[in-house]
Structures are given as structure tokens and as C-alpha cells.
Amino acid sequence: xxxxxxxxxxxxxxxxxxxxxxxxxxxxxxxxxIEVDHLRDWELVYKHSDSLALKKFPGETIDPTRVKxxxxxxxxxxxxxxxxxxxxxxxxYYQPEAKNAYDHPxxxxxxxxxxxxxxxxxxxxEDGQLxxxxxxxxxxxxxxxxxxxxxQGRSVAKSPTIGKVVLNGPSRVDASVSSGTVPxxxxxxxxxxxxxxxxxxxxxGSDPRTSQTRKHYGSPIAVVNSLLLRVTSVNHSGTGQSAAxxxxxxxxxxxxxxxxxxxxxDPLDNFKRLASRSNLYVAKDQPGYFDNDKGRFxxxxxxxxxxxxxxxxxxxxxxxxxxxxxGIPIEELRFFVSPDGKQxxxxxxxxxxxxxxxxxxxxxxxxxxxxxxxxxYLKIVLLGSSKAWSPQVSKVVINQNTASVKLASSRxxxxxxxxxxxxxxxxxxxxxxxxxxxxxxxxxPLLLKGYNALEAYAVRDGLVPSPIRNYTINAGKEIQVDxxxxxxxxxxxxxxxxxxxxxxxxGADASYYGSLKPPSGRDRYGxxxxxxxxxxxxxxxxxxxxxxxxxxxxxxxxxxxxFSLAVNGVSAHETFTRIAGREQKFExxxxxxxxxxSAYIGKDNYSFYIANKFRKTGIFPTEHxxxxxxxxxxxxxxxxxxxxxxxxxxxxxxxxPYVRMLPLSxxxxxxxxxxxxFDIFAPNAAAKIDKAFANALAPHxxxxxxxxxxxxxxxxxxxxxxxxxxxxxSKAAIKGKLVQRLQQxxxxxGAFNASWKTTFKSFGDMKEAVLPLSTSxxxxxxxxxxxxxxxxxxxxxxxxxxxxxPNHLLLxxxxxxxxxxxxxxxxxxxxAEGKYTDVISINYYTYKLEADLLKEVYEKSGxxxxxxxxxxxxxxxxxxxxxxPNSAAxxxxxxxxxxxxxxxxxxxxxxVGAHLFNYVDQAGLGRYWQGEWGERYNSxxxxxxxxxxxxxxxxxxxxxxxxxxxxxxxxxxxxxDFKK
Length: 980
Fold this sequence. Notes:
By secondary structure, this protein is α+β, with helices and mostly antiparallel strands. Strands 14, 17, 18, 20, 21 and 22 form a six-stranded mixed sheet that branches. It has a five-stranded antiparallel sheet with strand order 1-12-6-10-9, with no helix packed on it. Helix 12 packs parallel to helix 14 (823-836) and helix 16 runs parallel beside helix 17 (950-960).
């Protein structure tokens, strides 16, 4: 492209950069290192023809030293990259008389410096007193390290002088629109060549590489007036080297230049256009967060701020651009209009995120149209009780705004038809698909296939272009989850089909939950009121285990009978699913920007449940809001506690009894490869546990709502015999302890080998080796070591626990059902935990309660009661997994399973509670931390749309409300015969 040579000479081609230090070991650099050779000497040149010379050009500010050829045939320059080579830029100069008769150099690349391949570069030419030519080429094959610049012919006059060579630098920036006359409001995109390059531009004619007025390019630039764009890109390498590209210049004239209607555009650089204001100042710092805006209105204090406009014309529409810091709660702007400045009426403005977030700042556009007749005053109120500096308002447009683009879509079997409209009559609409290089003029509905990211804006001549709206449209055949998080292929009663339907749930919820009343006759903890006196139970001040007649029971701090009916996972955590890498499987998700980030964990994991709560209420719920809402619902369904994997910190609010988990699972130093158990023999394990317990337990030891602590969850004790002998002592202290114990028992390696039928030369050789269990003696030795391990582990935990918390129950370690069904492991665990825990907890998923096995655990533990710390049932009706296959065909049967399980547990004289898994269904394509194959169970009391399973919950209530009657034999236990 042609450039003005005078500008070239005035502004230069590159900022001066310090080359990579010669102390760096080049042989170890395997990345793309930026190298800039100003050719002041030959130091950075790998080799060159002896006939070439470096010539100084006195008075030149651009490349004052250049390579001049000697006129010998075959002259060349070779560069060898310090790392690998992916691009080069060569800056050269020709005499004007050589125009149209150049001997352009020829360029070659090589991986070994021996075999070269010719490449044809892009050529950028500058006219003027000197003809500047830049040769650029990029995207070389992997392993490329050399570039050779070969002169053609022998003519010195027709050959260039070379002033600068840049390896692995950025390329020039291309504008999406060619210079010239363009339609009014056309957006220009500045497209960089490589990821990681930063684009800067100016509009005042200055050099964007060095100018104090340069702007960081982050969003398209609208042509509404004469526009001069000067553009460069900058790249950085891992060692801190950087380089700027040459400057590209573009000039635009908009047409037609129509007159704007009566109105105003206030850039908010000062207060001159306001009739009045309060608690506001003009913020000018950090313009990079606000799309280069150096003047915005912000509040002086966290109190409300206001700005009032008075006009001589009716205000029909308004668009206000405001940026919010999304790391704090967002409070929306409020808008009011008045005919006289005395009586104001609040009006609704639709808010949508626009542009791209920078440093947690997200811009929103508020749009209000069809304002009341004769509105001559506009008041805008800024709110935000958390911080005074958020929000910041950057532009107000009155009557001269184009309404933003709205999307309507319809789906066929293999495509989506997307129709774009703007409420502004006569507006042109432009759209960009899938981050393409330019916006295209919209003329008819788009027929889309596959997964699409759509950006669109509208503009009418003379008006301000609308905000750019972002949409995602999945027109692919791989969609498995609809936009509400429901499985697309599933058909079921209550499936949400529209946003309007979901919003209507707010009223339905209020009516439903308002109609429910918690069961009567309960104390403040959910225990049976008055039962302490009736059954001679003592008030221990905390939850406790006591004997009541022939059975063990749990009691509240007041001494009343308490059967623990808690719900696990009172949180939205398991509703998050991984989106990244499988976007085509989801119909649509809210874009990751602004307040929508509340529906994400990181950028990759999304909760349809959180998004649906927003659609229902207009507010993104916090973790605390979800918990607080749940603990008002649970008692109405008859539950009296919050179970494990719920946010423990909110249990301190005293709404419902709750449990905590000891901090053992976070101790990475005690984890083993291939088996989930705690390595209690790790160095200083007891001291580390003591320190952790001091920090975690002491603050809560007087909390009366706290039932107690679980030790951990679902240890792999059933793998102990097979996995522990395979460990290496260098990585697992437990293996070293095993070898030590065997040495102490057998004394000599010969005696050990005879007993285990092995051929080890020493006990030392056993530490890193696999110990085979092939004899009866070897199994007996492992049984003894397992008993020793369990006693050491539970004993250490118990002593530290009671040191820092003498008040609360130690609730066991939540056996996995596999462990419970292993007779040998079950027996050893029951005996060990019987010595140290108050309760034995089992995550017990079953079709039928196994009374004989449960009684065995109770007896072998010495009479320690059992808590079912997890159980549940689900169905496949909504396309989710059913927890236990074939356990329930529908929500009615799911309720019957619950009733059989809980009432069967309540009549067992050694069971003190049953904790249901869980509050909300898991994500349809799996909970996020487990990736592609994460759990996806119909486990919740409510589904992804926050709709309760009313038939299921009704059955739960029938049992929960009568739990103490069943427990005390005042009502026969319920039983539903599934065989019938």
C-alpha cells in the first residue's frame, strides 16, 4: 500500500530496542525470541558477504546506519535466530530514480543453514524523497532458524540500502475497511496478525509507536466524521524483548452527512451540559479500562450521585454508557424524567453488556425509548454502596442514538435462521460472525449452521451508532443441553420452554413456599420438643449421643430427641459444568462479561442454575443468597439440618444445625498415589494435624448449632491390601513403615522371604519394590498392619480433635458403600472407629437397608450409633443419571424410595440420622471438576430451573413430618412394595 514518505521520515519505522543480552545461552532458547538489528555493527549478523559495508547517513533520524552493497554478484546477509524463526521484517530504502526498476532482494529460509527454501514476502512501499520498502514474511515451518537476504544483479543504484532487520516481530496492522469514502457509521476493525500482539492507534496524525495520545485498540472504531487512523502493532517475547511494526495509515470520509435531530452527545469531559449535579467528579485516570475514555463521571463518595439534563426539546430516547467493576456487587443506574423538573417519574432502561471487559471493568449500555411525552428533564442516578468509584458513566446520548440490534431466531432440523432488527427506522445493520475480519451489511435473515458468535450494531445517518451487541447461536446438530440447562432430548412435565415462563415462576414460588409450614412440636434445633423431660434425656449444651431405653439417640443441646434429617450440598457448586472445548453441545450460554460472570467459575465453567435464577428474579444470586433461601425451604419440607459439602461459614448464622469437615483433605503432604487414604506416617504428621486443628476447630468450639465434624469422605480402605504394598517408600511414608514393621517382626530377610515366598536380598530392597501377597502369612501381616494403621490414624485425629474441641461429635469418615460391603474391612474399621469416634458415618446408597450388616457394625464398634451421611435416589426422566440405576421410574417412585429408606432407618435402634444427597440436581453434562465424565445425577430437591420436584417432596414431607412418631413407635413405618 502507498504511504507518504515525509511521514515515514518524520516518525520512523521502529522504536529503538536493546537486543537480547549476549549472556543468554542461545542454544537453550527454543522459543520465538524477538531480535532487532539496527545494523550499527555486524554483531547480530550470522554471516555476510565481505563486499557489503555499513554506511552512516549523517542527519538521518531513521536508521542512520545502513548496509550498502559493493556491486559484486551474489552478495548476501544471513541471520540465525537465537531460538526459532517464525517471521522477519526487513526495512530498506531506494533512491527515487530507481522507482519501477528495483532489484528487489530475494529471501530464503532454512532450518539447518545449508538447505534453503525461497519465500516471497509482502512488500509495503512508501513514496517520497526516499522510497521506503518493508519486506515482511511469517508463518514459517516449525524448526526454521535461518533467513538469507540475497541481492540481485550488480547495480548499486537499483539495490536498496538496508536499515533494520527484525526477527519474530509483529506485522503491520490491516484495517477491515480500505481508505476512502465509507457509509456513515461504518465500523473499522484493526486486525493483528498474531495472537499476543497489541495494537495502538492515533487519530491526530501522531506516531502511534511513541505518541502520548496513542490509544490501545480494543473495539471497532466508528466513522462518523473525517478520520485519520495511524496504526502499529507491538509484540513481546518471553525474555522481555519487544518490537513495533511499521505504521499503517488510513483515511476515511463518511457519507452521507445527514443532519442530526434535536438532541445532544455528552462525552462527560466536564459538567457544562448539565443543569445540575450532586456527588460527582470527572475521573480521568486509567482510560485503558474505559475504551480510552479520559473523561467519565464518578461519585465522590459511596452515597448516590445524580446528574440532571434540561432540554428545550422533548426527550424521546436516551442511551447511556456506564462501566462497572464486576468484582463488587453491581447496583444498576436509575433513570427519571420530568416535564418541569419538579415531578419526576422513573422510567425503565434496558441494560446490556457491550464491548469487552478489561481488568474486571465491563461497559454496559442503558437504552430507553418512547419516553413520556413532554419530557424535558432527565435525571440519572448512580448507585453503589460498596465503592464510590464504581460505576463510572462515560457518555450520554439524547435523541441522537440508534437503537441496538435485537436477535430473533428460529430453528429447523439442521440450521437456525437469525433475524436482526433495530427499533430505529431506516437504520442499517452490520454484523460479524465468529470473530471474522470485518462487519458485513445485513440485508436478510442469516441461515446459520454449527456454533456461531454473532456481533451486530445498527446506525442511521446522522445518529450515533448503536452499542455492539454480542450473541451466541448454536445451530449445530450436537446440541445436548438447551439454553435453560435441560437435556434437549428429554421430554417431561414442567420443562421450561421460554424466558417468560421462567420469570413467571417468581410468583408461583412465593405462593408454593408460602403455603408450607414446618412441622409442629419441634424445638429450635428441629428436635422433638419436650422429649428431654419425657424420656429422661440430659441437656448437654451441645449435640450429643445418649441412651434412650434400648437404643442410642442423638440429642439437641437442650437434650431433646434429634433424628438428623439434613440435606447435603446446599449450594450451586455441583451445577457448574465445563463449557470450554465443547461449546457445540450447549444451545447457548450467557456471555462471560459483566454481571454474567456470576454464572461462571473461571471462564470455562458455567451454571445454568445460576443463570435461570437470574432469569427468574433479575438478580444473580450469591452463594450466601442460595444458602439463605434453601434454609428457609428445607424446614418447610421437614428437614432439620444442613449436611456436608455445604458452605460451612453460613452455618454459624444459626438458621439450621449443620456439620463441618476436618481439614485433612487439604493436606497434600499426606496424599498417596493411586489410593485415597491419609498417610499418617508422613514426617511430623501429628504436629501438622495439631497445628491445622488449632486453626480450624478452636473458633467454632462453642457453636451450639454445630452438630460435629466428619473426618473425611470415602477413603479407599477397600484398596488397602492391594495398593499399599505396591507403593514406593521414597514417595509414601506408609510403605516405609510397613517394611519397618515387617523387619521388626521377622528379624532376618531370610525369615521374611520364607514366610512371604519372596527373594529379596535385604529389607532395604523392599522399600521401592512391589510386595506380593501370595501366602496366608502375607495376608495376615497386612491385616495386622491395617489394624495398626487404623489405630494410629484415628487415634492421632481423635487426640488432636479433643484437644481443640471437647464439645462436638466426631462423626466418622463417611464410608463408601464398597467399603461397607467388604466384610474384612468393615470389621476392622468398626473396631478401630469404635475406640475413637462418636458416630460411624456411611455414605449408604442401597435399594434395601441391610439390617444384619448394620447391626454387625454397631456391635463390633462397641455400640457406636450409625449416621447415613449420604443416600439418595433419582430418575432418568429429565435425561440425567438416576443415582441408583432402576431404582425409580418417576418422581413418585423416587419419593417412595425415600420413605422406605428413612422410615426404615428411623426404627433401627442404632441409626441417628439420614442425610439426603442433595439440594440441586447436578449439571446435565457433568459437574465441572470431573470434566467430560463428571457426575450428572437427578439428585436434587429442585431441578436446574429451580423448580421443586413437588411429588417427590410431598412424599419426603409425609415421612419427615412424622419422623419422631415412627422412631418412637407411635406410627407404623411406611413401606412401599416395589414388586407390586
